[in-house]
Target: Glutamyl-Q tRNA(Asp) synthetase
Amino acid sequence: MSDYHGRFAPTPSGPLHFGSLVAALASFLDARRAGGVWRLRIEDVDPPRCPAGAADTILRQLDAFGLHWDGPVTWQHDRHEAYAAALERLKAPGLAYPCSCSRRQWRDHRIYPGWCRDGVCDPGKPVAWRLRSDLGLRPVVWQDRLFGEQSFDPAELGDVVLRRKDNFWAYQLAVVVDDAEQGISDVVRGFDLLDNTPWQRQLQHALGYPEPRYLHLPLIIGEDGQKLSKQNLATALPEQDEAVRPLLHAALVALDQAPPRALATAPVAEQLRWAIDHWEIARLSAEAHREADAATS
Ligand code: GLU
Model:
């Protein structure tokens, strides 16, 4: 039995687009190639950003592309107690502190200067909770499987928010607690999340969690050179099989896996079988790919 545990963790702020397909596919292939488990976690920790029905659409889209996950879906909206327990563990040794400052107050600084570290500046005002980054100032270093050694200076990272003033949990805390509790050994995700990783490494360290391995993927950019995102309304993935097949092929091309041209019209199960057998990270190029190139080559 492999001890590989991977996951795909979309935020249901809209349907999946080509960039998210590439991330889901890479994490699926990496897990299946290793004979490991691949889980699905819906990161709906910020409800105002998650329109009704978006998560269901994501589940249907993954299904249409043959990306079948193991076990039940995890929903972050169910995980309040786990996040609260983690925050308590950080509060006890003084690693987390309440902060009343607003972004406007520190707008002349690049990162939050830590004014509330030794006592809330404006008692009585709503507070966020932040992680202290100034204790044990060591560089945050890890080896990315594609981008190589990454090193960040804690003084440049600032004190990351763990719980927001509106009482919603911050993504950084939720993702770290869930990855640890689900025993995730390998995080495979888009390059746009690489600069979140140092905060997650700091939190894993503060909570005494094991550190997963990381593979950040080359970014897929739109024809206009902009990052694809739900915000710039990148096209939603189709669910009809005739449209899904060539797009799955294009995603394999975007991942530099050089799938045979004849596979472009093959059923998804056949394409995925080929892709699992041939999955090779060494083929991935760290260069950004344009969506149009990927979809037409
Ligand atoms: N929920 C995040 C997103 O959709 C991804 C989190 C992760 O893979 O760590 O951008």
Observations:
- The chain has two domains: 5-77+220-296, 80-216.
